[in-house]
Specification:
The structure holds 2 protein chains of 2 kinds.
Chain A (H helix, E strand, L loop, with lengths): L3 E10 L2 E11 L4 E5 L6 H9 L6 E6 L2 E2 L10 E4 L11 H11 L4 H14 L15 H14 L4 E5 L7 H18 L2 E6 L2 H7 L2 E6 L2 E6 L1 H6 L4 H6 L6 E11 L2 E5 L5 E5 L9 E6 L4 E3 L10 E13 L4 E7 L4 E6 L9 E7 L4 E3 L5 E2 L4
Parallel strand pairs in A: 3-8, 3-9, 6-7, 7-8
Antiparallel strand pairs in A: 1-2, 1-4, 4-5, 9-10, 11-12, 11-14, 12-13, 14-20, 15-19, 16-17, 16-19, 17-18, 20-21
Helix pairs in contact in A: 2-3, 2-4, 3-4
Chain B lengths: L1 H7 L18 H28 L18 H14 L2 H32 L5 H13 L2 H14 L6 H5 L6 H11 L4 H9 L4 H12 L1 H16 L3 H6 L8 H9 L7 H32 L5
Helix pairs in contact in B: 2-14, 3-14, 4-8, 4-11, 4-13, 5-8, 8-11, 11-14, 13-14
The chains are: A alpha+beta, B mainly alpha.
């Protein structure tokens, strides 16, 4: 159990800045997931925490102690790698007990700790096998076991499930969640897969270009993104972002021109500006088809669109359409099968539309 | 059955043999095997001839009625016994073996330590140092042999084991081969070991050495072949008969003023050829594997 503080951390490889002034407070026992597109700096941040990568500027404190210059092995962190990184010439038992062997732990202690970790991960029968004789999922469990044996204050996972097939990934995800409940240790997990991030995280940290874009509970981030990047990155299919021009406002609403023909009036308390460009954000799940039985929407807006292709997934169909402005709109048809024509009218609840300013920052209603 | 199916196939009707199951007997196949067979005869016949001459009564294999197979095992063993008992062959064996094994140990130790640093870590001057090593690989032995001799003589190491061994301890070829191999070792594994608390030397001992085993075995065998068969260097640096290697002793048997008959000379040759032959037969799979793996994934 440990509190981890990341204070003003920056890191550059030559001219390229990969981390820019990252500040995070990770509470004891929390499951934190760093998520972002590849090259966003999430793995570098994890490696900086582990000590495998030198910190550029800033401080990392574990339980209040500065660990910037502490040797990786002595930081009290353990890491699980994407490629498992098991030692191929050692058995699963030796792999898991290697750190204790190096630390000259007495043999009974070593055996006891490895057995305990193997019990948690159901590896008892595989301990005498070498990595070459283990399946992908088993290898990853041994790698996690190797981390558990070290009894770290913080577990670090670097895309640990990326090499597994889809079914096994779902299973391992559940096991990791259970493991966290059982051990109660602080865990930091890096992934580019937002489903993993949403399902595992207590706290999700969305990163892009070395900058923390937003940090919070997964559903809060999904419902209430801070900027256009987060709005677009979290959620699948991604949020529709449509350009519009502000034409007028009242204390309780704002009227915009575009993206369809005609003007839209959106409920918004205290819109800050009288004119200018904005982006309207609406999730595909919040747009339906005119005529579909989706209940009565109090304040609805309608957009006419042309269907370009339908993504029929069985339980749900996503319709990809073009608006008259040339922008792409994705909406959800509740039926598994789409039987409509090329021309359609999309309907959305005006209250579900989010507004972003020209720089991509969210414009929030006054409270 | 297979004979019938082969007979049905026109040699020209099977363009590449890809549609025919079983052995397709084309002209090309026969030619290929014939060439391979000739090559094998060229390679094996001298060795077989050596065995043939040793295990026969003197003069028999080259008589008017020559034999291509051994006729007398006892005659052969008698010659071997005679050579071992009446010459200093056993001492030469000991010198050669010590020379080879010490060189192997040194080459593996120095080569693997240097390759570990070159392949897996960054340090100032790395590129320059690597370039120097590679250049030394390109300098022929004939150029370096005189200065190396002078240096060894100055150190007072003539006619000593260290004089034989030490100049051959650092092998540029071995270093190059091990670097190529160790470059393919996964970095994440190294990092995992670092997180597990391994010191720099423990990384070398528990990670680099065991994972490079195949390359090390290959290098050991190649080094053995090289040192066992090395004639020039021992001849120059250890002219004292007490320090003669097997190669030099065999050279004495073959020298113009030697009064030995051909079969005794052949017995000396056979005894000299035996250790590398046994080494090769035991490790030939490893040699091929090691050389094949030295460039690709571990």
């Amino acid at each position: 159990m440990a509190q981890l503080d990341i204070v003003h951390v920056s890191k550059a490889f030559g001219e390229t800045e990969v981390l820019r002034d990252v500040n995070l407070q990770i509470s004891s026992g929390e499951f934190v997931v760093f998520v972002g597109p590849s090259g966003c700096g999430k793995s570098t941040l994890l490696r900086v925490i582990s000590g495998l990568e030198e910190i550029g500027r800033g401080e990392i404190r574990l339980d209040g102690q500065l660990i910037n210059d502490v040797d990786p092995a002595k930081r009290g962190v353990a890491m699980v790698f994407q490629s498992y990184a098991l030692y191929p010439h050692m058995t699963a038992f030796d792999n898991m007990g290697f750190s204790l062997k190096l630390a000259h732990s007495p043999k009974p202690t070593l055996r006891e700790k490895v057995a305990a970790a193997a019990g948690i991960l159901r590896l008892e029968k595989l301990l005498e096998r070498r990595p070459g004789a283990l399946s992908g999922g088993q290898k990853q469990r041994v790698a996690i076991g190797r981390a558990i044996v070290r009894e770290p204050k913080v577990f670090l996972f670097d895309e640990p499930l990326s090499n597994l097939d889809a079914e096994l990934r779902v299973q391992m995800r559940a096991e990791l969640a259970q493991l966290h409940d059982r051990l109660g240790t602080t865990m930091i997990y890096v992934t580019h897969d937002q489903v993993e991030a949403m399902t595992l995280a207590d706290t999700m940290v969305v990163m892009n270009s070395g900058v923390v874009q937003q940090c919070g509970r997964p559903l809060n981030i999904y419902e209430d993104p801070d900027n256009m990047f987060v709005a677009g990155f979290i959620g699948s299919p991604r949020m529709n972002l449509l350009k519009a021009v502000v034409v007028s406002r009242t204390p309780d609403s704002v009227t915009v021109d575009g993206p369809g023909p005609g003007r839209l009036t959106l409920p918004f308390r205290g819109f800050p500006r009288e004119d200018g460009l904005v982006s309207l954000g609406v999730r595909p799940q919040r747009i339906g088809l005119l005529g579909a039985q989706e209940g009565v929407i109090a304040n609805r807006i309608e957009l006419s669109a042309t269907l370009t292709f339908a993504e029929e997934l069985g339980d749900v169909t996503y319709l990809h359409c073009d608006l008259s402005s040339g922008e792409r709109l994705v909406l959800r048809s509740l039926d598994g099968h789409y039987a409509g024509g090329k021309r359609l009218t999309a309907v959305a609840d005006a209250a579900s539309i989010l507004l972003f300013d020209e720089s991509g920052r969210r414009i929030r209603p006054a409270t | 059955m297979s004979g019938a199916s082969v007979a049905n196939i026109e040699p020209t009707a099977a363009p590449s043999g890809s549609f025919v199951r079983g052995p397709a007997l084309s002209v090309w196949t026969i030619l290929k095997w014939a060439i391979a067979f000739c090559a094998v005869i060229v390679a094996v016949f001298p060795i077989w001839w050596m065995v043939n001459v040793v295990f026969a009564h003197p003069g028999e294999p080259v008589s008017i009625n020559p034999r291509l197979y051994p006729t007398s095992l006892t005659a052969g063993f008698e010659k071997i016994r005679m050579i071992l008992a009446e010459t200093d062959y056993l001492r030469a064996y000991y010198v050669s073996l010590a020379y080879s094994l010490l060189t192997i140990a040194g080459v593996l130790l120095i080569g693997s330590m240097a390759a570990f640093e070159f392949a897996l870590f960054e340090f100032p001057g790395k590129r320059l140092m690597f370039a120097v090593v590679m250049v030394s690989l390109m300098v022929p032995t004939a150029v370096t042999i005189v200065p190396t001799y002078l240096l060894t003589a100055k150190l007072g190491w003539l006619n000593t084991m260290q004089g034989l061994v030490v100049p051959g301890l650092a092998s540029a070829f071995g270093l190059f081969m091990l670097i190529q191999f160790m470059r393919t070792l996964p970095r994440e594994m190294l990092e995992a070991a670092r997180l597990d608390g391994a010191t720099h030397f423990q990384l070398y001992l528990h990670f680099a050495l065991p994972l490079s085993r195949n390359a090390l075995v290959t290098l050991a065998i190649l080094t053995f072949m090289r040192t066992w068969g090395n004639f020039a260097w021992p001849l120059i640096v250890a002219p004292n008969p007490e320090m003669y290697t097997v190669g030099q002793v065999v050279g004495l048997f073959n020298s113009p003023y030697s009064h030995q008959t051909v079969d005794v000379v052949m017995t000396a040759n056979l005894l000299a050829a035996l250790p590398p032959l046994i080494f090769f037969l035991i490790f030939q799979r490893k040699i091929v594997e090691g050389i094949a793996m030295s460039g690709s994934k571990g």
